[in-house]
Amino acid sequence: MGRLAVWIMDGTIPAMLSVPPRVSQATLGVADVARATEFYETLGWRLAPQSVPGLVSHLQTEGGRLSLVKTDDISTHAGLAPRTATDFRGVLLGIAVDSPAAVDEALRAVVQAGATLVKAGEATAWGGYLGYFTDPDGHLWSITAGPV
User: CB of 103 within 8 A of CB of 130?
Assistant: First the structure.
């Protein structure tokens, strides 16, 4: 039995296993980096200078960085088989805004930029207001106002 298993079994976890509770970067696999970059830039998202045109786009957000990389490049780099399915990936990215009107306005803007509206904004059982869209590569996003 390895040292990690012993530490966990006796109820102690050493400080060296601590992982900060934050998401600093999310990377989306896309079919065409330039096209995906254009979509997000149309929304007003700023391209970081570390970007390499056609290879990787790093977009600055208020909470971290969103990167766009060709899907096949991600799977090759990670040593995974290329993804063949185009169905729901089980991942949801979210943008919080200040009001239900801001949700509706943002949903109109993303659709105008090329997104697909999945579900119009509506009141939720938990007291918020929420709508969904997919970007041109099929990534599911929510835009929400209220308690999150």
Answer: yes
Tally of domains in the chain: 2
Quick one: pLDDT band at residue 147, thresholds 50, 70, 90?
Answer: confident
Residue 78 placed within a domain: yes
Confidence of residue 82 (pLDDT cuts 50, 70, 90): confident
Query: For residue 94, what are the β-bridge partners?
Result: 142
In three-state secondary structure terms, 102 is helix
Burial bucket for residue 113 (CB in 10 Å: 0-12, 13-18, 19+)? middle
Q: Is residue 74 part of a domain?
A: yes
pLDDT of residue 112: 97
Which range of residues forms the domain containing residue 41? Answer: 22-84
Question: What torsion do the CA atoms of 98, 102, 107, 110 make, to the nearest 10 degrees?
Answer: -90
In a domain, 100, yes or no: yes
